[in-house]
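For reference, the entry.
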Amino acid sequence: VMPSKMVTLFHNKNGSQNAPASFQTGDKVKTGQKISLFADDPTYVISSVTGTISSISPHTGDFGKTYSAITVDIDENEILDDQFKKQIQTPDLAAAAEFLSFAPGNPPLSVLSEPDTEIHTIVIMGADSDLLIGTNQSIVKSRLDAVKKGIGILRDMTGIDKIILITAGESMQGFGHIGAQVKNIDTGYPAALPQMIMKNVLGEVVPAGKTCTDLGVCFLTAEAAASIGNAFGDGQIPVQKILTLITKDGNQRLIETVIGTPIRDILDTYGISINAEDRIIFGGPMAGSAVYSLDHPVLPDTDGIVVIDRSDAAYASDYPCINCGDCVRVCPAQIQVHMLVRFLEAGHYEEAADNYDLFACIECGLCSFVCVSKIPIFQYIRLAKYELERAKASEAMETTETTEVTEATDA
């Protein structure tokens, strides 16, 4: 699927808006060119097309995430940028993080290159974490050479020897000498979530409030590994994204499009009409997030798009919990969900965290799926975590400001 007229790139800005602007409306960009909006901003996007920047506007995503939406009008003649090829002759982790973090699959190179983070294991996901999605399983089968090359480059750049390739429902044979241990997991959901792999494959339970990274394990998708392999093999940053498209009739198809392609172009290509109250989900049906504009672009980590007819869409209600216990029985983290949700509904987030293991939740969405009362438990949990993290960040900022004022007064 090719975008018809334009692409939109979400730039997660971290720099000062007072710094000189590096790119402005009207600037020309090449395919594969690195775009960072401000001179002091370490974050960037990679232009997936050749064209002219037609707008730079603010965009607010889920849970307070803010971006600069950079729209590029596509030119007829494509010109490939050669900055990556010129600056990186041999694989280097810090240099790779400067160019490949926006590649298909969102390689977490900033995590691997962070000096204060001690990573001892890399897990490459050849299985997909949500239901109905087959993106990374397909990449392992169809682009194994690129994945293999990416594994070798990751080992050379990081010095990490323990690299594990996760497959789901696959024979252990056929991978040859891929340069990584191959571990097979169950195809049942949610076996492919990182916390479940930590427990069932690596034998480590991720404590509540901690991440896999905290325990020294970095997860990346098979597509991310293939992107690294292709980048150093071709000398060009990949811009083509593979994803699973699930249509209203339940049909699944793998498609390839450039990063930044608006949803409407994909739907138009396959003749999919959208009516009032239909839903478009980015991700899978269990843990994905709804988007509300046909202009929303494909992102580097978009592994699936689900289109749901309004007659099939799940709905939420304000009907009270009937204490059936289905959510407790299905929870892989063994949380007392029926008690947790009572505190979340009332907005008592700290009590939920302290008394009912809010941060032990691995966000699989099974509780919402089985809820007889149709309570949006999964969304309550995500909101509670967001609000607590926001309050924690606000308190830390206030403490820092108080300390600075005290030090200035003492001086």
